[in-house]
Each structure stands twice: as C-alpha cells, then as structure tokens.
Amino acid sequence: MTAITIRRAKTVRPSRTPFSRPTDLHVRRGLLALSWIFLAQCALAQTPDIRTGTQIVVVDVTVTDSHGTPVRNLKQSDFSLLESDAPQTISHFDEHNPPTPAELANTPEMPKLAPNTYTNLTLSPDGAPINILLVDSLNTPLTDQANARQQLNDFVHNIKPGTRLAVFGLTTRLTLLQGVTSDPQLLLAAVNNKSLLQTSPVMNDALGSAESLSETVRIPSPQIKETMRTGEAGQAAQLDRVRVTATLNAMNQLARYLSGMPGRKNLIWLSGSFPMNFLPTLRVRNSFVTTDSVQAEVRETTNLFLRSQVAVYPVDAKRLQTTPLSDVSAGKYVYGSGRVMDDVDTFVSQNFDDHNTMRLPAQSTGGAAFVDSNNLRGAIDKAIDNGASYYTLVYTPSNKAADGKYRKITVHLNQSNYTITHRDGYYADSSATVTASTRSDKQLAAPSDSMHQAMLRGAPSPTQIIFKALFVADPKQTNKPAEGNVVSPKSKQPYRLITVAYAANPSDISMPAREDGLRHVDLDFVTLVYDRDGQLFNQQTNRVDVFAKPEAVQDFAREGVRYQQQIAIPAKGEYYLRSGIHDLIGDKIGTIEVPASSITVEPPK
Description:
Blueprint: H1 25-45, E1 57-64, E2 79-83, E3 86-88, E4 90-96, H2 101-105, E5 117-119, E6 130-136, H3 142-157, E7 165-170, E8 174-181, H4 184-191, H5 201-215, H6 222-258, E9 265-271, H7 295-307, E10 310-316, H8 337-365, H9 376-386, E11 390-395, E12 406-413, E13 419-421, E14 425-427, H10 441-444, H11 450-454, E15 467-478, E16 486-487, E17 495-504, E18 519-531, E19 536-548, H12 550-559, E20 561-570, E21 575-583, E22 588-595
Parallel strand pairs: 6-7, 6-9, 9-10
Antiparallel strand pairs: 1-11, 1-13, 2-3, 2-12, 4-11, 5-15, 7-8, 12-14, 15-17, 16-19, 17-20, 18-19, 18-21, 21-22
Helix pairs in contact: 3-4, 3-9, 5-6, 6-7
C-alpha cells in the first residue's frame, strides 16, 4: 500500500466571514440544502452533553449476583461514587436493559439523501448497546486460528435472534467486514471472509524467532547459548513492538469509528495475545534488553475508548495450553533436565503475560476477560449478555484541573453481596492537549498519526466529527488537475474535476474561546484519490486556521461548518475518493469514502 504524506496547501485565514465561500451556484444551492437536512439528522444522533469534554465523566456499571446474573431495578441512591477518594455527586442516572424485539425493530431509518450526498452518520436503536466482534489474526497463532473460525461459525449458526453485531478483522491492518446487523447470513459471510485467513507475517516472524530461540539450547557451550538467546530475545522484542503498534493503531481507529455513535459499545476482542506490557523473560539473564514502554500509546488508546464509551471484552482464542513436560516422551529434552525447567518457566511466564495483558484493557474500560476456555461461543454470548444490562452514572468532577494526572474511579453499592464492574479511571487531559501549534507536517506524515490511519483506503470511517459531503462532478474533462492537487506520476490524463462541499456538525468541532471573544477553529480538510488496490493517485489538503467572530459562529450553528475543495480523478479506471476533516485542536476526525463511479453529473438547478 502506498504511504500517505499529507501535504498542506496555503492556510486560509479570513478575518470577517465564515471560512466557506462557495462560488459556484450549483455547489452553493446543494450545500445549503445539505445543511438544512444535516442539522435535523444530527438531532437524531445527539445525546446530552455527558459525552463531551473532560468536565463530564460517564461511568457504565454492571452489577451481577453470585450466579453472574445481571441485577436490575437498582436506584441512584444505591450507588456512591468517588474520584481519587473524593466523593462525587451523581448528576445523571440511567438503567439499561437488553432491548426488546419491538425496540430492536424500531431502529430509526436514515433519511433519504440527495444525489451525490454522503454522510458518516450511523443510527442505532435507542438505548441499545452496540456489539463489535474483532477477529484478531495479527496476535493469534496460525495453529489456533482454524479452531477459532470453527467456533465462530458455531456461534453465528446459534446466535440469539435480534443480536446486533458489527464484525472487524485485524491482520496487519484493521478492516470493517460487516457493519452493525442482526442478519445471520451477513454475519456468517463476515466471519468467513478470506481476509481473515491471511496469516500475519509479524506473527509468523515472532513464532519463527521463538522456535529459533528454543533450538539454541542444543548448543553445548553455555556462553554461546546465552549470547544467542539474548540476541534473539531482542529481535523478538522488536517484533512484539511492531505488533503492539499495529494493534494500538487498530484500537485507536475503532474508538474513533465508534465515537459518534450514542450509548455503550461492547468490543468483543477475539485474540491469542496482546503483548501490551513487556515483562522481563526468565530465560535471559540480561533481560532488560527485551523490555519496552508503550505507556503513551496505551494512554491515548485508553482515553479514546473511555471518551467513546467502549468496554473491552477480550476472549482468548487459544485452546487450553499444556506444559512442555508433555513433550518429554518425544525426546526433546535429551540434553538434560535444565532445559525442562527453562521451558516450563518460559511457558508459565508467557501464559501469565498473555492473560494479564488481556485483562488490563478489560479492567481499565469496565469490561471482562475470558481466558483458559475452549468455549468461544459461550464466551461471546456471556460478553454480549454482560454488556447489555448496566447502569450509567454521570458526574462533574469536583477537581476541574486538566493536569494530565490519572483519576481513579471507585463505585460502591449498598448491597455488598453483588459484584460490580466499571472502568478504573481516566487521565485528566485537556481536550486541546494536541494543538495546531505543536503539530508539524513531519508529525502528520508519521505512520502512527491518527489522520494518516483514518485516511487509508478502506479503513473504518471515524465518527468523532459527523459531517456530510456533496460531491459535484464537472461534466467536462480536462488535462490539468485542480489547483493545489498533488498528483502521482502514475496518474494519466484526462481528468474529471470533483468539487467536495463539506458541512460538519459544529458541536463536534473544538472552538475554544479567547479573551477578545473570538473562537479559534483549526481544521484540515483532506481528499485522497485511490485505485481499487489502495494506490494513492492524487491528494488535496487545505488547512483552515481562523479566529471566528460571534456572527460567524452563529452561521456555523445554523448551516454547519462549511468548506469546499476540488480534486481531479483520472477519467478512466476504478477510483475511490476518501474525504476527511481533522480537528487539530481537539484531535477529532471524521471521514467518508465514496466510489468515484457513484458520482453522477447533475445539471445545475
């Protein structure tokens, strides 16, 4: 896949008017019509302000009895909540139970959109949690993937009627295989998608390094043996780092994709392991060479999940493991019992690490981990049931300092014989932690950058910024790209010019106020052109950095945050446009992907 380097055109800084200045009458009329229905549709997806800002904290709490059955009909007075040992006042309280068939059937329908108009808005049943199944081949050994797929098929064939799921796959990248649906046939096709059968080369390399490491014990010299172990352990740590980075990037994409969907989301993560924390290995004397830190990345992912109201339910995809002692009869340990103890120690340590790092994201987000079981179907059913009955507690922290410190959340229940589960806490980071002034073009082009990941061809579309886009095709072909386009040398003439008119939900855009009454808005508008294989052919990027006056902010509220840009696509061939908005102050993203063939030439009205 072609790497993306986001290149900016000249920054726009108007002083008196909103930054959108449509000049084409057709685009202007289409944009205004778009904005008129835009606000009405966004009202369907809006939840109270409990989801926005660090001054409001949402805590989902599950309560179960000694049999693991959800406890219902509790009252707000039954709960007490503390943040870093300081009592907090619960300002909002809701009980959520599994939706009835009638409620599921009452899913709001998307209003019909005008021709050439697209949106990243997704609607779901009111109050019903969204369940996401992530099939993780990146971190699951090939020997366990076949068994996992078989049990997934068994789960779908016996799925409870009305169960709504979205299915994602993770190999070296995250792929949306099926949007939220209750259709068993669509879910069956998703879990049997061929892309899930691709074994991760990173996992293959890691397994190869582990096998090579085990073979070094056959070398008689202890000094040579220790040197090779240390070197190969360091190589394995580097491969683990690649897996961690790819996994965290995928989790960040998931959190941004789910952000604009109201209510709780249950992420059922089917995986063999996740090496999020690297503990010293018992087999290497100088084991510091295998340690690593991904604290900053884990922190970012955790906060994204918490802000998007995501609870993680890891499910161990590996079958029950046996110790290496079971292989003694095969003659593997002909060089003495010392190797037996080495391998047993390694097995115990690795198994502990795998399970511990699967429990960590569950504990930090209020989910639950399912390990040491061959019953994947039962684990997925339990995760769905566990995430369907819960209580939502909302409070305004008494400590309003955005100091970046970790705030521990503790929830107590009057009835001590029940088990309660909730997220551990959150980092008190400002929503404007990453500002435009601290970001550089080099940072934006980095592989781990959030906008880079969001703009990949076929990636899940983030919904942190809900917007609509009107795509207007010029009926005439041209041999020149649009102004500011960065065209690939592979691109061939002639071109079709496409105008992209954006209208974004203003409540999703960070607009911090200044002392002079102006509000700062700093956005990147990006459109990329890909072929069907994901090769990048053209790009247009415009940064808009403005200080809006009150009348401009009123225009935003009435018509949406508007902008337009133009990009050229080759007139012949199969191409896709991916358009996105990046809020550089709040680090929020929204994207839409459109097949170029679906953009018809509409005559002006």
